[in-house]
Design brief:
The protein is of the alpha+beta class and 368 residues long. It contains nine helices and 20 strands. The structure holds adenosine-5'-diphosphate (ADP).
C-alpha cells in the first residue's frame, strides 16, 4: 500500500516566491500520476516536498495515511530518479546500484540479489562492470532507475527523467517506464513539461499553471473535457483552436457569429450557452474535429484560406485563416492542398467546447 495525499500544500521560497498554492491531490496505491505544466509552474517543488527534499510551508503530505511533513527523506521509503541521473562516475554500474543499500547495512547477498533482479528487469546485466562514462544516455538513465528499484520503495518519484535524451530515445524510455510501472505494480509520480508524456503514461494527470493546480483527471478526461482554456490549449498537439464568436439566439436556436460566418450549436449545448446570448465566448475545436467539406460554399461550414501546408506522412497539418482569425486542421494525407486555396471545413459541433471570455472556465457542464 502506498497512497500519497496532499492537503492544502503550499510552498513559499525565502518568504517571497510562491511556488505552489493550495495543492490538493490524492494519488492512489499503484497509480501512475503525472504532474504536467510549463516550466516554473511548481511541479518539481511539489515532488520535492513529497520526497522531503524541500520544506513544506503550508498543508499536509501523507503517505499511507501517515503525516510525513517532518519525516526525514530517508525514512519516507521513497526513491527519486532525477533528470541528470546523478550517478557516481568512479563507481561501476553494479556499485552505483548497490551503494545506497550498503549505506543501509543490508546484507551482501541480499544486495546482490536485488541488483541482479533490477539488472534483469532493466536489461542492463551486461553493463554491470562498466563505469557510467562507458554508457549511452539511455543506459545511464536505466541505471538511475535501477538504483531506485533496488531500494524497493513504496513510491517512485521521477523528475523530468527523459529531458536529456534525444527524441527517439525518449519515446523508447517512455514506453519502458510505463511497462516498468505495470511490472513493479508500484505507485509512481512523474514530473514533466511534455504533455505527450503526460497523455501516454499517466493514469492520472495533475495539470499545473503558475503554482496552481488547474485540473486533475485521466488523460482522456482532460483531453475531452478540459476544465478551462489553459488545459484545453496545453493538452493536445497541435493544440485546440480557439475562435472568438458571439452567441446569438435566432428563431429559438443558439448560433455562433464569427463575423465572416455563422455556425449552429449542437442541440445539447444550447441550454448552457443561452445565458451568453449577445456575448462573446471562445469556441474551442480540436484540429481533428474540423472536417474538409467537399461541397465548398455550403452554409454549414467555415470558409477559410490555406496559409501553410505541413505534410507529416500519416496526416497533414493545415494552417487556415478566416478573415480575421487563424486555426489549424488535421487532414488526411491523400488530399493535396496548396497555399492560397479557398476551402471550407465543417466542425464536429458535438465535440465543440466553450470557454468564458472573462474567467476562461469551461461553459459546458462536465459529465459525471
Ligand atoms: P517546475 O518544476 O514546474 O519547472 P519549480 O517547482 O522548479 O517549477 O519552480 C516553481 C517556482 O519556484 C519557479 O518560479 C522557480 O523559479 C521557483 N523556485 C524553485 N526553486 C527555488 C528556490 N530554491 N528558491 C527560490 N525559488 C525557487
Amino acid at each position: 500500500m502506498a497512497k500519497v495525499e496532499l492537503k492544502g500544500v503550499g510552498k513559499v521560497y525565502d518568504g517571497a516566491v510562491r511556488a505552489v498554492d493550495n495543492a490538493n491531490i490524492v494519488i492512489e496505491d499503484k497509480e501512475f500520476a503525472v504532474f504536467v505544466g510549463p516550466s516554473g509552474c511548481g511541479k518539481s517543488t511539489t515532488l520535492r516536498m513529497i520526497a522531503g527534499l524541500e520544506e513544506i510551508t503550508e498543508g499536509e503530505v501523507l503517505i499511507d495515511g501517515e503525516l510525513v511533513n517532518d519525516m526525514p527523506p530517508k525514512d519516507r521509503n521513497i526513491a527519486m530518479v532525477f533528470q541528470n541521473y546523478a550517478l557516481y562516475p568512479h563507481m561501476t554500474v553494479y556499485e552505483n546500484m548497490a551503494f545506497g543499500l550498503r549505506i543501509k547495512k543490508i546484507p551482501k547477498d541480499e544486495i546482490d540479489r536485488r541488483v541482479q533482479e533490477a539488472a534483469r528487469i532493466l536489461d542492463i546485466g551486461k553493463f554491470l562492470e562498466r563505469k557510467p562514462k562507458a554508457l549511452s544516455g539511455g543506459q545511464r538513465q536505466r541505471v538511475a532507475v535501477g538504483r531506485a528499484i533496488v531500494r524497493h520503495p513504496k513510491v517512485f518519484l521521477f523528475d523530468e527523467p527523459l529531458s536529456n535524451l534525444d527524441a527517439k530515445l525518449r519515446v523508447q524510455m517512455r514506453a519502458e517506464i510505463s511497462s516498468l510501472h505495470h511490472r513493479l505494480d508500484a505507485t509512481m509520480i512523474y514530473v514533466t513539461h511534455d504533455q505527450v508524456e503526460a497523455m501516454t503514461m499517466a493514469d492520472k494527470i495533475v495539470g499545473y499553471k503558475d503554482g496552481k493546480i488547474q485540473q486533475i483527471g485521466s488523460p482522456l478526461r482532460l483531453y475531452n473535457y478540459p476544465g478551462n482554456k489553459f488545459v484545453a490549449g496545453f493538452i493536445g498537439s497541435p493544440p485546440m483552436n480557439f475562435l472568438t464568436v458571439t452567441v446569438t439566439e435566432e428563431g429559438g436556436h443558439i448560433a455562433l457569429d464569427e463575423g465572416s460566418f455563422k455556425l449552429n450549436v449542437f442541440a445539447e449545448h444550447e441550454s448552457a450557452l443561452k445565458e451568453y446570448d449577445g456575448k462573446e465566448v471562445y469556441l474551442g475545436i480540436r484540429p481533428e474535429d474540423l472536417l474538409f467539406n467537399e461541397d465548398n460554399g455550403a452554409a454549414s461550414g467555415i470558409p477559410l484560406s490555406v496559409s501553410v501546408v505541413e505534410p507529416l506522412g500519416a496526416d497533414t497539418t493545415l494552417w487556415l485563416n478566416t478573415t480575421t482569425q487563424s486555426i489549424v486542421a488535421r487532414t488526411e494525407p491523400t488530399r493535396l492542398f496548396k497555399v492560397g486555396d479557398s476551402v471550407n471545413f465543417v466542425p464536429r459541433m458535438e465535440k465543440a467546447r466553450y470557454f468564458d471570455k472573462e474567467t476562461e472556465l469551461a461553459i459546458l457542464p462536465t459529465p459525471a
